[in-house]
Amino acid sequence: MRPDGSIKTQLWAAIDIVTPYLRRYAGRIAAGCLALIVVDFIQLWIPRVIKRAVDDLQNGVATSAGLLRYAVLIVLLALVIGALRYVWRHLLLGFSRLLEMHLRNQIFAHALSLDREFYHRNTTGEIMALATNDLAAVQLAGGMGLVALVDAVVMGLAAIAFMAYIQPILTLIAISPLPLLAFLTRFLSARLHHRFKRVQEQFSHLTEFARATIASIRLVKAYNQEEAQSDRFNALGETYVQNNLKVAVVHGTLYPLAGLISNLSLLLAIYFGGRLTIQTTITAGDFVAFISYLFLLTWPMMALGWVANLFQRGFTSLERIKNMLSEVPTLRDTDDAALSPAFGGQIRIRNLTFTYPQQRVPALQGIDLDIQPGVMGVVGRTGAGKTTLCHLLTRLYPVPDGAIWFDDRDVNSLPIAWIRGAIAYVPQDVTIFSDTIAFNISLGKPDAAQGDIERVARAAAIHEEILGMPDGYATRVGERGIKLSGGQRQRLAIARALLLDRPIIIIDDGLSGVDMETEHAIIKSIAEYLQGRTCIIVSHRVAPLADAQVLVVMDRGRVVAQGDHDQLLQENDFYRTIYRQQSALQRG
After folding, report:
1. Among 70, 75, 330, 446, which lies 20 to 30 A Cα-Cα from 393?
2. Measured on CA atoms in the order 352, 356, 359, 364, is the torsion positive or negative?
């Protein structure tokens, strides 16, 4: 969006997001607008009734019965106005809530479809701000903004028409300040857009900082950083307030100016209209009706500033939402209906080189591997590329054509969902949801029987510890598993992967939180689950992987050696050194 973009430019840039919902609820919107327009015309008719009553009083023909009829008519019109107001509020404001719901669902679904590259560039707080603060601005523009716009246009034009019917020259005099209001609205609204955009961006930073601090509360407390974090949060909050004050300056200027101009119109109408009444050019009833119409016109005149504010905020937020919805996954996907559901478990990697986005040095270089059913261990120093290899096998990042093959099929020709559906992945950073133990284990298989959940928990050496918790498998573990130790979280993740019963299991350093003996015991315990499957276990400890059919040693993004334990001890100095050092530490 260019800094000098007008409301019209913004509208056309973002309208395609809401167009499907405008079409879907066109009948609802039309009926609501019709009810709103009828209300406006009934309101415009009431001054005509008052005019007749005043003229009857002036001409001396008024009677008690006649005045009572006028009063009853006004009450009936008010009742109809009340009923129709309920109708348009239900239809139009209800539409704004439906629009909010659909956009929120669209944002959430699109966020789930995006891959790691997007999340490298955008924080959780920015996405949360879109689904809360920005969406609220769109909802307000699509609800009260739409109502105020229709009301202002219909009421304004109709009121001017009724005023012109009474006295055209007086009408021109009364509405002469309106062009000034239009100019000021356009001038100030352009500044409102840019200032409100900064407010929304700062709100994203504020939300992300709060989320990150709460998520890391144990670390904050361990380092005595409560006061420092509070100071940082306060600084962000002060910036947010300052940006809001800049918006308030524009808004606070726009709204009073609209009121000032409307009161100027009223002053002109009273002065010149009073003279015309004295000169008997118009009747006293006409003068009262004209002033009543001018009062009705005051709201549309003042609403211009308010509507401009609402739509500027709405378009600014809609533009931010559009930018997020315009993001596309970097991973190519395919829909191969002829794909066989069977998978033999063979994976071939040929000359695989990969560099992370915004990085210059490749994380992997020239990787060649043949992975067969059975257990393959991957060892190496921190930063050797082990986790990157796991990420590429689970299709979290794009790879070149011909680099990775599943059963002689290039992964770029296979549906991503099919590949991930064949893999049970235990990442290095385990995610535990704020729910029960049973829920977290059965996350990928929610209909799993309790017996199956307990069976995989035993294999992951966590069953006895779960039974020792207050409510066993029904124990709620808190946000991000805060009630569990690091080793318990990792073993829950192991159990979760085993329950999926998939042909490929990848454990990326998923047992670093337990001691070496427990890790070795767990690997032996899950051996029965690995029969006929392809299992890749990444570990920084060598001894527990000694029984693996194949061991792969990685260093600086390359495969520097592979073979079984005995072979590597004899032939590879790097592996032999690591094994001896870790064995000495264990004995010590």
Report:
1. 446
2. negative
Domains of the chain: 8-325 (1.20.1560.10), 338-422+508-588 (3.40.50.300), 429-501 (3.40.50.300)
Contact 379, 545 (CB under 8 A): yes
Long-range contacts of 545-549 (CB under 8 A, 24+ apart): 545/375, 545/377, 545/379, 547/375, 547/523, 548/374, 548/375, 548/376, 548/377, 549/372, 549/374, 549/375, 549/376
Residue 350 backbone phi and psi in degrees, to 5: -130, 115
Say which amino acid occupies 489.
R
Q: How far apart are CA 511 and CA 497, in angstroms?
A: 13
Q: How far apart are CA 53 and CA 69, in angstroms?
A: 10
Which uninterrupted H or E stretch holds 59? helix 26-59
What letter does residue 436 receive in the DSSP assignment?
B
What is the residue type of 160? I
- Residues with Cβ within 8 Å of residue 167, at least 6 apart in sequence: 273, 276, 281, 282, 286, 290
End-to-end Cα separation, the chain, in angstroms: 64
448-477 in b/e form (b: 16+ CB < 10 A) is beeebbbbbbebbbbbebbeebeeebebeb
The closest alpha carbon to 147, from 27, 33, 21, 251, belongs to: 33
Task: For residue 133, give the nearest of 255, 213, 240 by alpha carbon.
Answer: 240
Q: Are strands 409-410 and 404-406 parallel, antiparallel or unpaired?
A: antiparallel
Q: Which of 343, 319, 243 is nearest to 15 (CA)?
A: 319
Q: What is the edge-to-edge ordering of all strands in the sheet holding 409-410? A: 364-371, 347-354, 404-406, 409-410
In terms of phi and psi (left: phi > 0; alpha: psi -120 to 50; beta: otherwise), the region of 159 is alpha
